[in-house]
Every structure is written in C-alpha cells, then in structure tokens.
Amino acid sequence: MSRTGHGHGHAEGRGHGHGHAEGHGHGHGHGTPTGPLARLWHHLKHAVTPHSHDSADRLDTALETSQRGIRALTWSFVILFATALLQLGLVAVTGSVALLGDTIHNFADALTVLPLGIAFVLGRRAATRRYTYGLGRAEDLAGVVVLLIIAGSAALAGYEAVDRLLHPRPVQQLWVLAAAGFVGFVGNELVARYRIKVGREIGSAALVADGLHARTDGFTSLAVVLGAAGVALGFPAADPVIGLLITVAILFVLRDAAKEVFRRLMDAVDPATVELAERTARSAPGIAGVREVRMRWIGHALRAELAIQVDNTLTVEEAHRLAHGLERRLTEAVPRLTAAAVHVEPAVGADVAHA
Question: Which of 336, 351, 349, 350 has its CA nearest to residue 61?
C-alpha cells in the first residue's frame, strides 16, 4: 500500500506515485488466470479483497483482529446477560429498587454488543470506490453510542438514588441483596477487564470504552452491597447516598472514555508511535531524510503517510523498491500499522521544489 503522492520517481499506477492502494492494479506479475472458471474466481477474489503486494497478509490480520473483537463481545454478552437474569430473579425476592436499577444497567451493558458487533462486521468489508478506506470508522461511531449509553446509565443511577432519598422504601432479605450486588460486580468486572484488554491489544477505542462502561456498572452493583450493609447497620439512607457517589464516579469514567473516543474521531495518535515511525524510516538504508509523517486510525488499524528524500540519481525502479521496502519495514516495526503511503522526492532540490 505504499505509494508516492506526487510521483517523484515512481511513474507507475494512475500516472503519479507508487500507488499500492486497494482496488488498484499496478502490474507486478499478478497475471489474470486463463480459463473461464479461473478468471471468474480471480475477479471474485479481486472484488472482495484489498489488492497490494501484501494484501493476503493484511487481510488475514484485519480479519484476526475483528474476530478477536467479536469473540470478546460474544463472551461478555453471555456473562452479562446471565448476570442480569440472575439479578432479575433476586429483585422479586428483595423488593430492592436499587437492585432493579442495577439489573437494568447490566441488561443495557449487554446490549452494547449490538453497535460494536455491527461496527466490527462493517470494518471487515473491503474498500470500495466510494469508501476508499473501508468502513473501519464505524467503530468510532459505535464508541459514540457507547458513550451515550454510559451517560444514560449515569442518569438512571442518579435518578434512582435521588428517588430513593425522597421516597424511602423498605428493603428485605439484605443478605440476598448483598449477594446479588456482589454477583453483579464480579460479572461486570470480569467483562470490563476482558474488553479493555482485547480492545487495547487490537487498538479498538470503542471496545475499550465499552469495557469502561462495564466497569461503571460494576461500581453500581458494588453500591448495592454497600447500601445493604448500611441498611443493616441502621442507616436506611446509606443506599441512596452511596448511589449518588457512584453516579459521580460513573461521570468521571464517562469523561475518560469520552476523551479516548473524541481523540480517535479527531485522528489523534500517540506521539510515541509517530516518533517510532520516524526513527524506523530514518534508519532504513538509502533514505537521506524523512518529513511530513502523518498517521491516523481507521477502526483498529493505523495508516501512515510520509515523505522521504533519496538520492536523485536513483532510477524509477530503484526508488520504487526502496519505498516498498520502507513500507514493509514500517508495518513490521509499528504496532497496528497496516499501510504506509510513501512520497519519494530527490534529496537534492527537494527544498527548492517545496519552497
């Protein structure tokens, strides 16, 4: 997927640049098979997969990360749905409104798999002429939906706490109530750790945000336990007061999750990752200078573009090999980087050309 943006030494592809983009034929010996069935298979395969020197490897990597994300969502859904069903059965026993609210939170958290699952499936689709970078951005939009759900959970938790303060209600079976809250906390914390771990490993801000959401619901479940303890000690207002404190904690988690999703929407990248790409490019043989390094996330994959200065005596073929080799070097060195657009310019006269 390396390419040159303005055709400095790479007279290949669509007139400019080295251009190993999806859906772009560049003629490196990828011959069309003979025979009607072979040609049909070739065209079908070309239509649904990115086309580049390393398209097979990159497609496998993209599918692997998406499958890991979907697997994390599936298991977390099973755990949270089972937790919510168990708590729902205990609501009838205790008559606790706090436990009912916590159960609603857990059902809502389980249902966040829907926007994320849709986003992961869309992200696996190949790029098209209209969506030239694919649909990986659907993950970022799913992250926004998750933020809205977290905000809704905070609002519901706050409402339940205030309502309990204004309209006290008797709570029965305190030990059962405490056990139900503890079950909710454990279930949510397990899911939170799993989602956050997988989300960070595959570079999915939306999955990390959803893991933080599960953690907020775990705090809400823990509030049920503490509230039951307070009621047992003769402080009936303990449950709603702790519920208000947990609402504040949820808002802090919402703030952190919103920062992460907002940065992803605004194409923010860790500066250390950019520096790693710059160092890797400068250390490559045959490169006299590196500038204009830019990176962005597309779903849970990174894309980069940069300009390199090379010896102005290089032939087009030599410059092409050098840029393609640099792309391989970058994708091997920089985590989650799947493509690099390399703009090649002569080391002599480059400054004059850009003046």
Answer: 336
- Both tokens of 310, joined, read 């090379």
Backbone angles phi, psi at 337, to 5 degrees: -80, 125
What does each C-alpha distance from 134 to 65, 71, 122, 139, 295 come to in angstroms?
15, 21, 8, 12, 16
Separation in Å, CA 160 to CA 99, 102, 153, 237, 265: 10, 10, 11, 13, 33
- What does the chain come to in residues? 355
3-state secondary structure of 11: coil
Helix, strand, coil % over all residues of the chain, rounded to 5: 65, 10, 30
Please report which confidence band the pLDDT of residue 97 belongs to, taking 50, 70 and 90 as the band edges: low
Structure confidence by residue, pLDDT tens digits, 231-255: 788 887 776 787 787 778 778 878 8
Burial of 224 (0-12, 13-18, 19+ CB in 10 A): buried
Q: From CA 240, how far away is CA 162, in angstroms rounded?
A: 7
DSSP-assigned beta bridge partners for residue 298: 301
pTM of the model: 0.65
Q: Where are the alpha helices (DSSP H) in 4-54?
A: 36-48
Exposed (0-12), middle (13-18) or buried (19+): which is 278, by Cβ within 10 Å? Answer: middle
